[in-house]
Amino acid sequence: MKLGAIEAGGTKFVLGVGNEQGEILEKIVIPTEHPDITVPKVLEFFEGKGIERLGLGGFGPIDINATSPEYGKLQKTPKTDWVDYPLGAKLKEGLGVPVIIDTDVNVAAMSEAKWGNATDVNTCLYITVGTGIGAGAYFHGQTLKGLSHPEMGHIPVKRHPDDDYEGTCPYHKDCLEGIAAGPSLMNRWGKKGQELADDPKVWEMEAFYLAQALTTYIYILSPERIVMGGGVMKQAQLFPLIRKNVLEMLNGYVSSPFLTEKEIDQYIVPPGLTDEAGVKGALYLAMQQ
Amino acid sequence: MKLGAIEAGGTKFVLGVGNEQGEILEKIVIPTEHPDITVPKVLEFFEGKGIERLGLGGFGPIDINATSPEYGKLQKTPKTDWVDYPLGAKLKEGLGVPVIIDTDVNVAAMSEAKWGNATDVNTCLYITVGTGIGAGAYFHGQTLKGLSHPEMGHIPVKRHPDDDYEGTCPYHKDCLEGIAAGPSLMNRWGKKGQELADDPKVWEMEAFYLAQALTTYIYILSPERIVMGGGVMKQAQLFPLIRKNVLEMLNGYVSSPFLTEKEIDQYIVPPGLTDEAGVKGALYLAMQQ
Ligand SMILES: Nc1ncnc2c1ncn2[C@@H]1O[C@H](COP(=O)(O)OP(=O)(O)O)[C@@H](O)[C@H]1O
Ligand SMILES: Nc1ncnc2c1ncn2[C@@H]1O[C@H](COP(=O)(O)OP(=O)(O)O)[C@@H](O)[C@H]1O
Ligand SMILES: [Zn+2]
Ligand SMILES: [Zn+2]
Q: Is there a single domain that holds both residue B158 and residue B263?
């Protein structure tokens, strides 16, 4: 069976045709413009390719409740052209195949569980630290959702004692995303993350916030693995700092061999999939149900 | 089929025999003493009752990984007589039936989903605010667990600006449990919760912390309902304060009709089951797999 896969991001759409073995047979990348430009290009790409189902991992917030009349509709995204755009319905209508939709980070978590760095466990968390912070959880073949989809980047956090930066989140100011995503590095230190590589205090503070978030996710979700990706995590120096801070914050409370100095680098890991994570995850999503 | 059910708490064990319809046919309560006293009483109660499976919702931390050689073993509980006690194995050995084990709060979440105030949804969170703070999540027929079981009471929290109480948690001092469980009320204000009913600032601060926790749980788990129980929640005045604070903290970020002034009292609710929640949940657990 041929399957369609879309990774819909704020800057680009990756479109793929693949099969149930997770092979991508054909792939293109198009920029995210106004929906009236981008969506016709998407339809054109899939036209006549014989796909029977389509999976879509989307930027959000987006309605991912399959029983909702607004399934696949974008909500109050910062990409204003896309606010309230019924992406799911347009694709379903245009292609005449079932469309299965989830968030980009849920799809990435699923993709890591199926083909990446979490294939040996039943539960995992994927977190991206980039322009924003988002995370998705995989749990025994499904992704975590309910009332809406998780928005794990917006949790409240305790401030680092040396930090008086007010925060960038338009909704919460100093939520996690507001003080630890890429733009907050720029705003706090006056330079982009990639230009701050040699300044240890930057990464100690960043690790403090990200470790606090992981500690919270561990207490609440107890995932069997945590995969960390996104632009900011390209600073490989963050990994050992985050691991150390997580162990200190947990302070021995959760019993697991993975939550020890010896094994934590097998617990908090970089992604196993790079380029094709989103589109491969969307392929897997297309196979659901 | 007859099923056995145990609600194992720090002060008492509730033992029940029931059936697959959730009826409790017989029930006794015994105090939690040394395991060498309590466990023989448990075995004696179930002896000859013809139960084919046993469900146990236990105080913890406890190993709830069914594939672990230490399944059902207590870990570093404050009840020192029970540290490292292999409760699951002793019951399985003594009764010769399969024993299915989960945490007390996971069992309560399942019980509310099956027979209580969350029967109309597929996901819910149950939180108890008593001597400690614990929460369990129900997700499409299962309870949430992974590396270990969640310990949602121990998440880090931002301090209330008027609060300088240091916190009681032996592991983390001012984690949520350390500053918002029953004993912290006693320590901060010099009186037990039940004696502080008429002091509004007590409940405003308590609501600030509990609402912050719920906000975090909503961002991470997105449950379709939140059920709040435990001794401290007997202060019914907490419910409207918590609901108001949750809406303020979310600040409109999560789209759902339930996260509005109009419907939030159907979203954050008291338990539907009272006395028999634990033992009924354990019965349901006994039917799993
Ligand atoms: N090597 C790097 N070190 C630190 N920060 C980086 C690095 N590369 C990119 N970033 C930051 O990551 C953010 C972009 O994140 P990315 O995951 O690439 O994209 P997006 O989140 O928009 O999909 C920017 O704020 C950028 O400054
Ligand atoms: N009506 C009440 N108002 C406020 N606090 C209460 C009330 N009743 C009990 N508590 C507090 O709740 C805690 C006991 O919680 P409970 O859920 O009854 O037991 P446990 O958590 O030990 O199973 C104590 O700290 C007690 O002071
Ligand atoms: Zn925010
Ligand atoms: Zn704690």
A: yes
Identify all chain B residues contacting A154, using CB atoms and an 8 Å cutoff.
219, 253
Nearest C-alpha to atom 18 of ligand 2 is from which residue? B231
How many degrees, rounded to 5, is the angle at CA A145 between CA B276 and CA A66?
A: 110
DSSP conformational letter for B284: H
Query: Closest to A251 (Cβ–Cβ): which among B157, B172, B259?
Result: B172
Q: Total domain count for chain A? A: 2
Ligand closest to B168 (CA) is: 4
Give the pLDDT confidence of A183-231 residue by residue, as tens digits: 999 999 999 999 999 999 999 999 999 999 999 999 999 999 999 999 9
Confidence (pTM): 0.95
Closest approach atom of ligand 2 to CA B229: 17
Structure token digits, residue B275: 């006395």
Is B189 found in the same domain as B79? no
CA distance B251 to chain A (A): 6
Q: Are residues A205 and A147 in the same domain?
A: yes
Q: Could you tell me the residue range of the domain that residue B76 belongs to?
A: 3-106+275-288
Given an 8 Å threshold on Cβ–Cβ distance, is B151 in contact with A251?
A: no
Between CA B277 and CA A68 the distance in angstroms is: 32
- The answer to whether residue A111 is domain-embedded is no
ipTM surpasses cut 0.90? yes
The ligand with the least distance to the CA atom of B173 is: 4
Tell me: do B214 and B247 sit in the same domain.
yes
Three-state secondary structure string covering chain A: CCEEEEEECCCEEEEEEECCCCCEEEEEEEECCCHHHHHHHHHHHHCCCCCCEEEEEECCCECCCCCCCCCCEECCCCCHHHCCCEHHHHHHHHHCCCEEEEEHHHHHHHHHHHHCCCCCCCEEEEEEECCCEEEEEEECCEECCCCCCCCHHHCECCCCCCCCCCCCECCCECEHHHHHCHHHHHHHHCCCHHHCCCCHHHHHHHHHHHHHHHHHHHHHHCCCCEEEECHHHHCCCHHHHHHHHHHHHHCCCCCCHHHCCCCHHHCEECCCCCCCHHHHHHHHHHCCC
Pairing, β A99-103 against β A142-143 = unpaired
Q: How many Å lie between the centroid of ligand 4 and the Cα of residue B171?
A: 5
In a domain, residue A45? The reply is yes
